Amino acid sequence: MYGDHTIPYEYENEYVRFSISKNKGYISYNRSYLESNLDTRLSSYTPNHNFKYYNEDIERLILSDERNITVCPIEPVNKPMALSNHLEIEFADTIIIRPKFSKKIFITFPIEVGIFLQSRKRKKNIDIITFALKKFTLYGPQNGGMICTYWKSDVFTEPPSLNPLVEGMLELTLKNDTDEWVDIQKAVFDSQCIKIYYSDSLVAMRAEMKILSKTIAETAVNNSPFKKEMEKSLELHDTRGVPIVSKKMIMEWGY
């Protein structure tokens, strides 16, 4: 599914079907989730929650004569709705790291798939698809914290085997610059700093988390692929013309 495709193009897996075709003077795009398969997956996740966006059918008429689309993973903060520019990944196991020490681990992050029309001046996002089940959380105090897209991940010491349509792999280098042992339970990232690379079998990011004090850490995503042959994803904020203010995220309310 990932990569550049010539219109007309159609894709289907066990959860979703979408197609894009050219007609006289316009382009037609259609997407539908296959509800029978999704219902089973959603009920096993949380039977009392209503995930409306997983079964909405989309039909779009696009007045354009473009010939190609790009399908790639994007910043995973748009579904179920775009409430935040931040992603919080909670670790399933607390990590304890000794003073003045650096270690690389592997965690996961949720996948969202962007469908882009290759416009002459700027690529246009026409749809966002996801198979990852996410929630929202508050990072920091109730009177001044930030809403984050929430994801919980196992911690691995070696690259895990993942479904590249559901989960991506985050290679995270932990650096404890303090003189104390510290416990790490989460990492928070600014989505505008996220740099994703992909292949047919893997979606990945590389990042660093630097512990600065007992309560403050700094995260930054590296703009480099996990493997040389991987392609860089389009950045949704870039296609919308949103300027990047900073390349780092300061976690000032603990980690």
Mean pLDDT: 87
Helix fraction bin: under 10%
Total DSSP helices = 2
Oligomer: single chain
Low-pLDDT runs of 5+ residues are 38-53
How many structural domains in the coordinates?
A: 1
State the total count of DSSP E strands.
19
The main pleated sheet reads as: 7 strands, mixed
N to C succession of SSEs: EEEEHEEEEEEEEEEEEEEHE
Our estimate of the beta-strand percent is: over 45%
Compute the CA-based radius of gyration: 19 Å
Distance linking N and C termini: 36 Å
Shape: elongated
What does this structure look like?
By secondary structure, the chain is mostly beta strands. Helix content is 6%, strand content 49%. The chain has helices spanning 35-45, 236-239, and strands spanning 3-6, 9-12, 16-23, 26-33, 58-62, 68-74, 86-97, 101-110, 112-117, 124-130, 135-139, 146-153, 167-176, 182-190, 197-198, 203-211, 217-222, 231-232, 248-251. Strands 8, 13, 15, 16, 17, 18 and 19 form a seven-stranded mixed β-sheet that branches. A four-stranded antiparallel β-sheet has the order 1-6-9-10, with no helix packed on it. A hairpin with a 5-residue loop joins strand 16 (203-211) and strand 17.
